[in-house]
Amino acid sequence: MGWSVRAGSIEVPLLEQTIGANFEATAKAHAEREALVVVHQGVRWTYAELDAEVDRVARGLLALGLASGDRIGMWSPNHAEWVLVQYATAKIGAILVNINPAYRSHELTYVLNQSGCRFLVAATEHKSSDYRAILEESRPDAPLLERTIFIGTDDWDDLLAAGVDQPEGVVPERLATLDPRDPINIQYTSGTTGFPKGATLSHRNILNNGYFVAELCRHTPEDRVCIPVPFYHCFGMVMGNLGCTTHGSTMVVPGPSFDPDDVLEAVAAERCTSLFGVPTMFIAELASPKVDQLDLSSLRTGIMAGSPCPVEVMKQVIARMGMDEVTVCYGMTETSPVSTQTRADDSLDRRVSTVGRVHPHVEVKVVDPATGDTVAEGEPGELCTRGYSVMSGYWNDPERTSEAIDAKGWMHTGDLATMDAEGYVNIVGRSKDLIIRGGENVYPREVEEFLYTHPAVADVQVIGVPDERYGEAVMAWVQLRDGAAATAEDLRAFCDGKIAHFKVPRYVQLTDTFPMTVTGKVQKFKMREDAIALLGLEQLAATRTA
Predict the structure, then answer these.
(1) Neighbour count for residue 1 (Cβ, 10 Å)
(2) How many CB atoms lie within 10 A of CB 516?
(3) CA atoms within 13 A of residue 509's CA, in its CB half-sphere
C-alpha cells in the first residue's frame, strides 16, 4: 500500500501569458467564430466583435483614470457587460473584485472597504435586489468608492464615450506592462463564520486553471458551452469564460441567474455541446418536463462541481441528457479553483464515485489533520493542494493566509478525502461536517448517497445535531420527488439493516428547500442552526459550544 500523494502531469506546459494577451491571440485566430451569446439580452458577438467591445470598455476605464492595480468591483448577475468588464480589466491590469449579487448593504460595504474599490460596476436591479437603493445605504460608509457605473443607464454610455478620444494604442501599451503573476482578481469566499475572505488570484492562476479544465473536457473551437453558473464565482468566470476563451469555444449564457427551463431551452436552441452546473442545478433540470421534450442531442460533455455529486443524479445526467463525457471537478476559490477532475474516458464508476485525479501542474495529498502526516491510500484525512493554482493569499489578511497555506506552500482545504491506489480522490465531507456519534465517525456523504437510492427521494442533506447521550445525532433533511410520498419513518425503516446502525438518521425532516448560497451550495451550518431550533436543542447546543 502506498501513500496518498500525487503530482499532476507537466507534459502540457503552463500558459505564461496574461489573460489579455491570451484573449487577443484567440480573438485573432478565431475572429469570425461566435464568442459570446447572451440569450436574455439578445447579444451575439464573434470573437472579433467581442474583442472590439472589450477594448471600448478598457479605453473608457483608462480615460476615467483607473490605474494598474486599482480595484474595481463587479456587482451584477450574468450579463454581457460582466464579460466585457472581466476582459477589459485584465487588459489594463485593474483588479476585478467579484461581488455576490445577493449581497445587501452590510456585506457590500465590507467588501468595498476591505478591497479598497475605487470604482463599482453594477446592475440596477435583479429579482428582489434594488442595487441603487442598497448602494445608497452603503455609500456613506464606503469612503474609498469614487464612482459607480450602472449597467444599462447613461453611466454605461458615459463610460464608453469617455474612451472615444483615447489614442488607439493606449490599451496595447498598458497590456504590454503587465506580468502573468500580477494579481488580477479578488474573489470573496463565503465563510460560515465571520466576514468573507478575499482570495487574491493572478492572471497565471486563473488563466491556466480555466485552460486545463477545458482541456480535460476536450473542448475545442467547435464547442458551445452553456454557462448558467454565476460569473461572480470561479465556476462561471474561470471554468466557464476563461475555459472558453483559451480554446476559441463559444460562451452561451442562458439567463441572468439560474432557471432550469431557460438552461434547457438555450442548450436546445444554441446546440450546446457542454453544460456546466452544480448538482442542485442538474437535479432541477432533470425535474423539468422540458428535459424530455427538447432536443438535447448536441450535448456531449460538461462539468458537475461545487458540491459532491450524487451518484444517481450523475447516472441520470448521462442517460437522459446525453452527457456521456461529463466530468466532475473538485476545488475551492483559493485554488483558482480546480485541483482534481475526472477525465472524459474514465469509467462510469469513476465518474460517479470520485472527483477524479490531480490536475496538470498541481500536487495533492491527504494528511492526518492532527499531525499533518500523509496518510496511507484509502485512509481518510484532510486534502491539501499545491502548485501554480494556489492563491497569493487573502487580500490584506496575512494572518488568515498563514492559517490556510503552510510554510511549504500547501493549501489546507478543510475537506475530508480518501485517495485510492490509482490516485482517484473521493471527498467524504467537510472536516467541520464530520459527525462524531458516540465515538463513531459518520461521513454525511455516505448516508446521503444511500438515501438517494430511495425512489421517493429527490435530494437529501445530512447533518449532525447535538445529542445528550452520543454527543451528536444524525439528521437527514429530505426533498421528495414531485408526486412521491414517504414519511420520516418510511425513510428510517429504509435504512435499518442496510447501513450501520450508528449511521441511520435519528431525525428525518421533510422539506421543500434547503438554505443555499447564490452558487447553489447548500449551507449546512444554517441547516444545523434551523434544526437546533426546530428540535428544541438550543440549551444543549449552548452547552456543547461552551
Answers:
(1) 8
(2) 14
(3) 21
Of 351, 231, 218, the C-alpha closest to 274 is: 218
Distances (CA, A) of 510 to 151, 382, 473: 41, 31, 17
Backbone angle region of 471, left / alpha / beta, with phi > 0 → left and psi within -120 to 50 → alpha? left
C-alpha grid cell for residue 266? 438555450
Q: How confident is the model at residue 400 (pLDDT cuts 50, 70, 90)?
A: very high
d(CA 356, CA 329): 7
Mean pLDDT of the chain: 93
- pLDDT value of residue 546: 36
Q: How far apart are CA 185 and CA 205, in angstroms?
A: 10
- Which long-range contacts (C-beta less than 8 Å, at least 24 apart) are formed by 148-157? 148/119, 148/120, 148/121, 148/122, 149/119, 149/120, 149/121, 149/122, 150/122, 150/123, 150/124, 151/76, 151/79, 151/81, 151/121, 151/122, 151/123, 151/124, 152/123, 152/124, 153/124, 156/81
Say what the pTM is. 0.85
Report the pLDDT value the prediction gives residue 192, as an integer from 0 to 100.
Answer: 41
C-alpha cell at position 358 = 490531480
Q: Is the sign of the CA dihedral 24, 28, 29, 34 positive or negative?
A: positive
Q: From the CB of residue 480, how many other CB atoms can be counted at a distance below 10 Å?
A: 18
Return left, alpha or beta for 15; rule: phi > 0 is left, psi -120 to 50 is alpha, else beta. beta
**For residue 499, what pLDDT is reported?**
83
Which residues are CB-contacts of 407 (< 8 A; sequence separation ≥ 6)?
none
- Laid out side by side, the sheet with 357-358 consists of 43-46, 34-38, 250-253, 224-226, 274-277, 301-304, 327-331, 338-341, 357-358
Domains and CATH numbers, the chain: 435-545 (3.30.300.30)
* CA gap 348, 377 in Å, rounded: 22
- Residues pairing with 130 in the sheet: 125
C-alpha to C-alpha distance for 342 and 346, rounded to whole angstroms: 7
The neighbouring-strand residues paired with 366 are: 383
Q: Provide the residue type at 122 as one letter.
A: A
Cell of 460: 437529501
The pLDDT tens digits of the residues spanning 67-106 come to: 999 999 999 999 999 999 999 999 999 999 999 888 888 8
Q: Residue for cell digits 461536517?
A: 433
Q: How far apart are CA 41 and CA 26, in angstroms?
A: 24
For 28, list phi and psi in degrees, rounded to 5: -70, -40
Question: Reduced to 3 states, what is the DSSP secondary structure of residue 130?
Answer: strand
Residue owning grid cell 488607439: 168
